[in-house]
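chain below, 174 aa
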Amino acid sequence: MRMLDLLHISLADQLLYGFSDGVLRLRFPVSTARNGAGELNGSGCTPRGMHQVRARIGEGLPCGAVLRGRRWTGEVWSDELHAAFPGRDWILTRILWLSGCEPGVNRLGPVDTFRRYIYLHGTPDVEPMGVALSHGCIRMRNADLLRLFPLVPAHCRVMLAERPCPQWRRAVIS
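prediction:
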């Protein structure tokens, strides 16, 4: 498959749409913020607008690798580990760290996506997809993230939008 040049995440659809040269290439369910859309630091919201992938973290790590502070702890998620740390916001497998592209909207000052540590990241398979439950990040199934990660180069554009995208939700993937 070709490298992607745009990820479009619809908060309404709770879906990630991946494009290459304007053609829809893939679609994955996601989970965005329980608190909805918003850019302010500390809001627990998913930021809107145009972003880019600023860093790709976790290449070569095992599926379910536990990441804290963007570093592998050496642990791999399991039911037992999950039970030992109830309520933990698990960041697993890979991280695509986002940076806003719109000064005053999602970049710089109190609305800086990068300084808010907003990622696309893996989450335990026991967590539901298609339901807004995150603390601001975009959660994905680990298997889906493993498929997506090698197709997303650094600086790939990422649009985070509230509106539904029915034309892509039902479209045949090329």
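Residues 7 and 15 are 10 Å apart (CA to CA). The mean pLDDT is 97.
thats it, cya
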